[in-house]
Amino acid sequence: MFRKTSLKPRKKPRQARSSQLVDVILQAAARILEREGLTGYNSNRIAEVAGVSIGSFYQYFPNKEAVTAQLIRQSQEQLIEGVSAVLDQSGDEAFETAMARLLAVVTDYQLQRPALAAALDREEARLPVDEIIQESRARIMDRLVLFFQTRGLIPLQGTLHDVVADIITICRALCDATLDGPPVTREALLQRLSFAVMGYLGQATRR
Question: Transmembrane stretches, by residue range (predicted)?
Answer without folding.
Answer: none
